[in-house]
């Protein structure tokens, strides 16, 4: 017999080593009165996290566990993931579903996949109840906050990883700061203040050894896609730009603004500025841009503290053949409405957030990096 109940899905995300599996184990121990289905996603061909859960003997015989390997549920495995979710929703022996995403998953992409799936289906037997990001407090402090203070050391993190961690914290409704026993109270408070610079809505809880009151996860504030999206300081800055509103300061003294200009950047000037002269008061930056020596590729700029990356993500429509442009204009007519006579859809649109920075001076520096 198929179930007609709409079932909650709790997503646990967080970078490798943050403590997701430990949190999952503790939650499973506390939910002995529920029939839970668990989906564990790991990029490798051997699902180590799933093995850890089994070895800890917390998965009872009436619980179901599905292992998804060789891909990530936010991209390559997204369709297969949603099919598994939907299948579980029709199982009368399942009350709720918990998903442990891979360490490199982007929760925004997973949530968007849920929305798309539900639109295509018209109705779904599941709903995204909560996105929980587990963040390693010790790592955040020594590999991000210290980096912002320009403290040298041998624990410097890869900027791609730092940006992924920031993305995971930006898009959730609960943040669990793990390994808090390794830090002093004032260090933990400093981490919370930094998190509030780019995420002002999510509940933040300190945890040790994965222990968290399950009511805070399963009975707390529910996930709301639009609310979570708009809780990001980056998103709020973009919305103000659209509405042509002035920069405003929030309760934490944080301000944000958008740099928008269709002219290309000079690659060498921009990289030199970001590497050697970037103001430490700018805590987070993100957006799309292009360079004079490459009119084909859309570049994604991401910055967190002293870490920054520039990555090719797609092609500008203006660089495509006339035939391809015509097809795209037919499918996405809005693109043509903002088409620049000289640059087409090429545009630098970068969002920056921080505390106590000199906006006028910063804008001047950015302008000096333009090629024209």
Describe the structure.
The chain has 372 residues and is α/β, with parallel strands linked by helices. It has 2 domains: 224 residues, Rossmann fold (3-Layer(aba) Sandwich), CATH 3.40.50; 126 residues, CobW-like, C-terminal domain (Hypothetical Protein Yjia, Chain: A,domain 2). Helices cover 38% and strands 23% of the residues. The protein is built from 14 helices and 12 strands. A 7-stranded parallel β-sheet has the order 3-2-4-1-5-6-7, sandwiched between helices. The chain has a 5-stranded antiparallel β-sheet with strand order 8-12-9-10-11, with helices on both faces. The longest helix is centred in the N-terminal third of the chain and has 15 residues. The radius of gyration is 22 Å and the shape is globular. 34% of the residues are buried.
Order of helices and strands: EHEHEHEHEHHEHEHHHEHEEEHHEH
| Biggest sheet statistics | 7 strands, parallel
Strand arrangement across the biggest beta sheet: 3-2-4-1-5-6-7
User: Can you tell me the residue ranges where pLDDT is under 50 for at least 5 consecutive residues?
Assistant: 57-62, 151-155, 244-252
């Amino acid at each position: 017999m198929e179930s007609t109940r709409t079932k909650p899905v709790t997503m646990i995300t967080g970078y490798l080593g943050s403590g997701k599996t430990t949190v999952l184990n503790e939650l499973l121990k506390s939910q002995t009165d529920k029939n839970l289905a668990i989906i564990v996603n790991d990029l490798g061909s051997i699902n180590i996290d799933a093995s850890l859960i089994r070895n800890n003997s917390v998965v009872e015989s009436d619980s179901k566990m599905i292992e998804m390997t060789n891909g990530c549920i936010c991209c390559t495995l997204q369709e297969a993931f949603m099919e598994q979710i939907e299948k579980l929703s029709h199982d009368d022996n399942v009350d709720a579903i918990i998903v442990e995403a891979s360490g490199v998953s982007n929760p925004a992409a997973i949530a968007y996949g849920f929305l798309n799936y539900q639109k295509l289906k018209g109705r779904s037997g599941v709903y995204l109840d909560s996105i929980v990001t587990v963040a390693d407090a010790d790592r955040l402090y020594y590999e991000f906050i210290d980096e912002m203070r320009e403290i040298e050391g041998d624990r410097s993190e890869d900027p791609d990883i730092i940006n992924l961690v920031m993305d995971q914290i930006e898009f959730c409704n609960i943040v669990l700061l793990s390994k808090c026993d390794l830090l002093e109270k004032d260090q933990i408070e400093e981490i919370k203040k930094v998190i509030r610079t780019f995420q002002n809505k999510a509940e933040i809880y300190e945890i040790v050894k994965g222990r968290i009151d399950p009511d805070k996860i399963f009975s707390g504030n529910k996930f709301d896609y639009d609310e979570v999206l708009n809780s990001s300081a980056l998103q709020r800055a973009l919305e103000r730009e659209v509405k042509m509103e002035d920069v405003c300061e929030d309760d934490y003294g944080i301000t944000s603004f958008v740099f928008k200009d269709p002219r290309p950047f000079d690659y060498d000037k921009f990289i030199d500025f970001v590497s050697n002269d970037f103001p430490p008061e700018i805590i987070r930056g993100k957006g799309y841009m292009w360079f004079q020596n490459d009119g084909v590729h859309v570049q994604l700029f991401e910055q967190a503290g002293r870490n920054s990356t520039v990555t090719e993500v797609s092609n500008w429509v203006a660089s495509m053949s006339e035939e391809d442009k015509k097809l795209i204009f037919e499918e996405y007519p809005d693109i043509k409405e903002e088409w620049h006579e000289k640059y087409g859809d090429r545009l630098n649109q970068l969002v920056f957030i921080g505390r106590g920075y000199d906006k006028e001076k910063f804008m001047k520096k950015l302008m000096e990096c333009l090629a024209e």
